[in-house]
Amino acid sequence: MGVGRSTALRIRKRYLEEGLQSALVDKPRPGQPEKYSEKHIAEIIAQACTQPPEGRKRWSLALLCEEMRIKEGFETINRESIRLILSKNKTKP
Asked: Domain extents for the chain?
């Protein structure tokens, strides 16, 4: 099956204690909550799809970052966050 011994033992224990469904499905894992909502993501993508500023051929990540920081709710956004959002949505500025 390609799993380690401890993984198999942990799943077996979960099966015995909580039942089959619990053993088949992973529980939600803790992690950092999403910083930006779907609305925020849509705003970033929409901005990347607009005409770039005067004198520029296209949007760069730095330009998008500067433009988004002006808007409410994006005061702390950085280039990497914008890059990840655009990459995840297969959008190129």
From this structure: 38-88
